[in-house]
Amino acid sequence: MADTKAPDSTRRSERSRRAIYDAALALVGEVGYARTTIEGIAARAGVGKQTIYRWWPSKAAVLLEAFVDLGVQANEALGGDADTEIPDTGDLEADLKFVLRATVDELNDPRHDAPSRALAAEGVVNPELGARFVEQLLEPQLQLYVKRLSAAREAGQVRREIDPRIALELFVGPLAHRWLLRTAPLTHAYADSLVEYALHGLAPR
Amino acid sequence: MADTKAPDSTRRSERSRRAIYDAALALVGEVGYARTTIEGIAARAGVGKQTIYRWWPSKAAVLLEAFVDLGVQANEALGGDADTEIPDTGDLEADLKFVLRATVDELNDPRHDAPSRALAAEGVVNPELGARFVEQLLEPQLQLYVKRLSAAREAGQVRREIDPRIALELFVGPLAHRWLLRTAPLTHAYADSLVEYALHGLAPR
Amino acid sequence: MADTKAPDSTRRSERSRRAIYDAALALVGEVGYARTTIEGIAARAGVGKQTIYRWWPSKAAVLLEAFVDLGVQANEALGGDADTEIPDTGDLEADLKFVLRATVDELNDPRHDAPSRALAAEGVVNPELGARFVEQLLEPQLQLYVKRLSAAREAGQVRREIDPRIALELFVGPLAHRWLLRTAPLTHAYADSLVEYALHGLAPR
Amino acid sequence: MADTKAPDSTRRSERSRRAIYDAALALVGEVGYARTTIEGIAARAGVGKQTIYRWWPSKAAVLLEAFVDLGVQANEALGGDADTEIPDTGDLEADLKFVLRATVDELNDPRHDAPSRALAAEGVVNPELGARFVEQLLEPQLQLYVKRLSAAREAGQVRREIDPRIALELFVGPLAHRWLLRTAPLTHAYADSLVEYALHGLAPR
DNA sequence: ATATAAGCGAGACGGTACGTCGGGTCTTGAA
DNA sequence: TTCAAGACCCGACGTACCGTCTCGCTTATAT
C-alpha cells in the first residue's frame, strides 16, 4: 500500500494534463529549466499546484512526460511512423552518415536544445529519472541502430564478432559527448568522419 | 567596467578559501550536490556567506574550483606528474586498453562519482560553467590522447589521414555516454571492446 | 490596485495570528524592541516568515496590533468596560488627580514601558504608524478627557470659553513629555501639581 | 581602564570629524534616519568605517553630535548669543506667546524636522542617548523658561507657590506632544491658547 | 435524480535557501 | 598612530518556491 492514497486516474482531467505539458515546455523554452518552477507551471497552466503534485513526483518528471508526449504528438500528426527507421539502401556507410547528419541537425535545433539538455542533465544526477529518460527517449533510438547494424552484419558488411549494442556507441557516444559538453561544434563533416573512422578503424589495414 | 566593484584579491583569505573547498567537497559527498547549499558550505567552513558570494558566482563554480584544486593538490602530493601520461610501450592497443580501464575504474569510484556527475550535469545546462569544466578538467585529459595518438600515427600504427582530435572521441565518447546516462555498466571488457572496435573498424577487411 | 496581490483574509489562520501576537510581545519584553526581529517572532510563534510578511508591513505594525489586541483582550476579560471612564464625583480636581495618578502608575509599570515606548518612538518617525498609534491607542484615552471636561464645563467648573480638546493637553502633554524624554521622574505629586496648576492657572487671581 | 584601548584624541583628524558631521546630516535629510547607515556616512565622508567606530558608539551618537555642532556653528556665525533669551517686556503673556510661536515655527520647519524627530525617537528608546539629547539640546531651552518664569514670579505675575520647573511643562509639554505624535497641527493660535489657559487656569475665578 | 465523493482551482501555511545589506572587528599600506 | 580602504564573520532582511494542507466548486458515478 504505497502512498496512503492513490489518485483515481480515470477521473483525471485531460484538460489539465495538456495545459501542464504546454506550460512546462513553454516555460523551459522561455526561461530555462532551472528557473522553471512548479508554481510557475501551475500558474501558467491555470491549474492548482496540487494537481501537479498529485500526478508527478518532480519537475523533471513533468518535463520528461511533456517531452515524450511531444514526440508522440508529432508522430501521430505524421499519420504513423515517419522516418522512424534507419534506411537500408545496402550501403551501410551512406545510411549511417544519413542518420548521423540528421541527428546532428536535430541536436543543433534550438527548439529541442533547452529541454533535452535539461532532461539529460537531470538524468545525469538523478538515476531514477535518468533511467526513464533513457528508456523512453533514448533506447528507442538506439534500437534502430541495433536493427540496422544487425542487418549489416547479416549482409557481411560488419564483422561477425561485432556486438551491435557496443558498436552503435561508436557513433552515438562521440556525438552525445560533443553535444553535452560542447567540446567542439557538431557538423555534418564530423558525423561523416565518425562513420568512416568507426567502420574502417584507425589502424592501417 | 565589470561588476561595479571587483574585490581586491591580494587581500583574500587563503584560510577561508581552503575551508570553503573542504566544506564544499565534504557536503557534496555527504548529502549530494542538490542538497548542498551555499549556506551549508559557509556554515561548515566557518565563513560568512558573503565571503563565498564575493569570490564565486555560484555553487557550481565553488565546486568546480574545489575539484580542480583537489587535482592540483593530489599532483603536488605526488611530487610531480605521476601517471599524467598515457604509456607508450609501442603497443598502441595495449596502451589504450590500459588507460581506458583506468578511466573505467575512476568513473566507477564512488568518491569521485557524485561531485563529477554534478559538475558535468551543471555544465550541460550552463554553458559558461561547462566551458570551464571542459577547459580545466576534461581538456588536459584529452590532450594526453592527442599526444599518444599522434605518436602512434608517426609510428605508422594509425592511418595518416586520421585526425587524433576526432579519433580520441571514439574512445572517450562511448565511455562518457555510458557513464553519464547509465545505459549500461562500465567494465574492463567494455573498455577493451571499444579499443578493438575503434582500432580495427567494424567493417570486415 | 494596491499591492498586485491582496491575500484572502477569510482564509487567515487565527491560530497563527494569536501566536504571532504572543511571540512579539514576549520578545519585546525579553530583549527589547530593537533586538526583536521578524525572524525571531516567526521562529518563536512556530510560523513561517511569509505569514508575517503577508499580513503586516513591518515589525512595528505587528507590535502595534499585538498591543491593541492586548487591550481588547484585557477589556473582554473584564466582562465589559471597566474603568474605561474618568470618574465624575462632582469634584473635577479630585477626579483628574485620580486619573493622572493612575496614568503615572501605568507609565511607570515596566511591563508596558518597553513596548509602548517602542511604538511611540516608531510613530514619531513613521507618520503612517504614528497615525495608527494615535488613533487606536491614544485617541480613545483622550476622548475620556474630552467627555469629563465637557461635563465639567456644563457644571460650571470650567470656563465656558475653554476648548476641552486643548485643555486636556495641559494634563496629558506634560506627562507624555516627562515619560518620553525622561526629563524628570513621574510621581503622584507631579500629577497633582499639574492638575492644580492647570485648573487654577499660574497667574495670581 | 575602559575599552581595552582609548584613542588618543589629540591626534584626531578635524577634517574627518567635520566630513562625518556633514555626511550624516546630509544623509538623514535625504533618505531619513532609518536608512542612513554608518557605512553610508563613511563612504560619503570619504572616511574609513573604523574612524567612525573609533570616536562614536552609535549612529545616533554621531547624529546627535552633528546636530549639536550645527547649533554651535549657527550661534558662532551670529557673532554671539542671538535670541538665546526669552524677552522680558514686563508682559509675561505676550513674551510667552512670542517664544511659543517661534518654537511652533521651528518645529514646523522641514529642515529641522527629520533629524530632530529621529533623535527624539532614538532618545525615547535609548535612555543613554535620551539623556544626552535632553542635556545638550533640550535643557538649555528649558532653562530659558525657568529664568523667565522666575523673573515673573519675582515681579508678582506668577503665584509664589508655583515651581517654574513644573510650570514650564504646561507650555512645552503640549507642544512636544502635538509635534511628536502629530495629534493635531501646530499653529500660532494653538500656542496662544496654551499660554492663556496655563496662565489663567481652566477653572472660573 | 440525487447524494457522495473525487478531482480541481486557489492559495495560506510552515519551512529552507536565496542573494543582499549592514553591523562591528580586524588587517594592510600610505602619510 | 591615525587614517582610508575594504575583507571578514555574522545576523537579519524580504523574496521565491517547496511540498502540504484546507477551502469551496464542479463533475461523474453509484445508489
UniProtKB/TrEMBL annotation, chains A, B, C, D:
Highest taxon of the lineage: Bacteria
Annotated PROSITE patterns: HTH_TETR_2
DNA-binding region: 37-56
Ranges for domain HTH tetR-type: 14-74
Keyword match Transcription regulation: yes
Keywords: DNA-binding, Transcription, Transcription regulation
Listed InterPro entries: Homeodomain-like_sf, HTH-type_TetR-like_transc_reg, HTH_TetR, Tet_transcr_reg_TetR-rel_C_sf, TetR_C
Gene3D superfamilies: Homeodomain-like, Tetracycline Repressor, domain 2
Name of protein: TetR/AcrR family transcriptional regulator
Species: Streptomyces gobitricini
